[in-house]
Amino acid sequence: xxxxxxxxxxxxxxxxxxxxxxxxxxxxxxxxxxxxxxxxxxxxxxxxxxxxxxxxxxxxxxxxxxxxxxxxxxxxxxxxxxxxxxxxxxxxxxxxxxxxxxxxxxxxxxxxxxxxxxxxxxxxxxxxxxxxxxxxxxxxxxxxxxxxxxxxxxxxxxxxxxxxxxxxxxxxxxxxxxxxxxxxxxxxxxxxxxxxxxxxxxxxxxxxxxxxxxxxxxxxxxxxxxxxxxxxxxxxxxxxxxxxxxxxxxxxxxxxxxxxxxxxxxxxxxxxxxxxxxxxxxxxxxxxxxxxxxxxxxxxxxxxxxxxxxxxxxxxxxxxxxxxxxxxxxxxxxxxxxxxxxxxxxxxxxxxxxxxxxxxxxxxxxxxxxxxxxxxxxxxxxxxxxxxxxxxxxxxxxxxxxxxxxxxxxxxxxxxxxxxxxxxxxxxxxxxxxxxxxxxxxxxxxxxxxxxxxxxxxxxxxxxxxxxxxxxxxxxxxxxxxxxxxxxxxxxxxxxxxxxxxxxxxxxxxxxxxxxxxxxxxxxxxxxxxxxxxxxxxxxxxxxxxxxxxxxxxxxxxxxxxxxxxxxxxxxxxxxxxxxxxxxxxxxxxxxxxxxxxxxxxxxxxxxxxxxxxxxxxxxxxxxxxxxxxxxxxxxxxxxxxxxxxxxxxxxxxxxx
Length: 657
Ligand code: AHR
Fold this sequence. Notes:
alpha/beta, Immunoglobulin-like, TIM Barrel, Jelly Rolls, 3 domains, 9-stranded antiparallel beta sheet, 8-stranded parallel barrel, 33% strand
């Protein structure tokens, strides 16, 4: 290797990158031999309402159990009062304002004192100084009396942060709305309703909703922005096990999640009984974030929508209840109607519903998942029934099928040949395993059949602890292993067309599963090291794979190399993108050769993501492990580069076209 083939711009950078000894590794990128196309959907996200990802998370309603649907005990509310003698607070379901969510609250008082109702929110209500909220309620005074209703947002220590009054009740249900501004910040505020005066007051749909939302489309800005910043190629939604439900009665049914929010039928969340660190049977789905909002979010962040539908099977980890094959029609009809809802003209039944919700243009859905994480013959039969109808009526839609919960178990080996026989479009593989699995399986797809179905690595995460999910950490060791594995996904872009980490969000006070890509509390969110790995792949995707040959003394462990590389070409930018993961403890000095390039552009960049294996990000230190980009001058197609121990590096080198 000639000295002088590496030039770096700044002294500091030079110190970091110039190889101090003879390069041990050679890395040749065949820049003139572009291979497989990398699908624009290659790197995406998977949203499931687990860990308070939706209610209490991305869907920023602050009031828990706003429509009193979970009455026994009354979830989220504390009832109290001062003075007076007789007051009764009951939950009723006789003459509600809507038909799907029948419960409402009746307060009857002799007027001698004050009734107070306090809502705790989701682990407290996050309010920020200066933030505006809409307080709203449906109310009536059924007996024509004139009780008074005041409301206040109070801090955890009881100081009033905002408030107002609502007047003018009539015997008919009426919607009342006030805008308020918080005068201080508190992550654990609550909402109090204070009723005075004699008579009866009925309340329903008590809401405290922030005015500021992502693109004014109703979602929490910081969390949605975290998703947008990933530049995801697709978004898979709404799950996950919640698609399936414990039983078919609490499966996810998309039709009950659209239209007026008040009419969306609430259910208990499939994850309700899986709290790992706090007993709290209070996890429900309001569907305020429903299918329309999912499609809208996909559009807002530039991701292809990938809805997943129940295929007539409840969660096989739970009841495994089956819809008999000869009764599947309504499930298949749901799929046909969903395609019409997403793509149909405004003159069609379901297209008209989309238009009525404010989106006359189609959402242009191209992908649809049949079942979540299902397995064995019962799944294959149901998938086949769906595919027969959908392929005949909508050949333009690519169907995603399931290979089960593991990447190589009996269920997996049962599914693949059957799905191949059925000419499945895309098969969804899942894997939660120790970091070693990911490091050792970076070549997994090198051996896949090039002519069969494509692969969607739909759920994966390295787990720091083998058995106890409570201990799973989002540390750099896990993220680095995922990065190594992802080089293998990209290198095999002719087979793997989609991939997404799982799960996406975790609320620090109320999770059922970990690790998660993004952690949040009532006001803040931060990306894990795993998030930044995903982001580096996604934002440096490229369009065509370039072959890479690795040679020399690669670092190894237990006979497995611990040095991984993949390269791609970004046609638009006219750049070669090289991603290298050095999962070993030693720096690797490499001699790089951009074969077929005569003159690289000088203005290359190097982005480094590194840390100690145990490093994690946190609210206090959200960027402890985060990428840092520096300029790099590359003046010749051969140059040296030193890859740091335990690092992921992305080099972008402009090349003449
Ligand atoms: O991502 C968490 C869960 O893992 C998903 O809900 C399910 O599909 C898988 O078992």
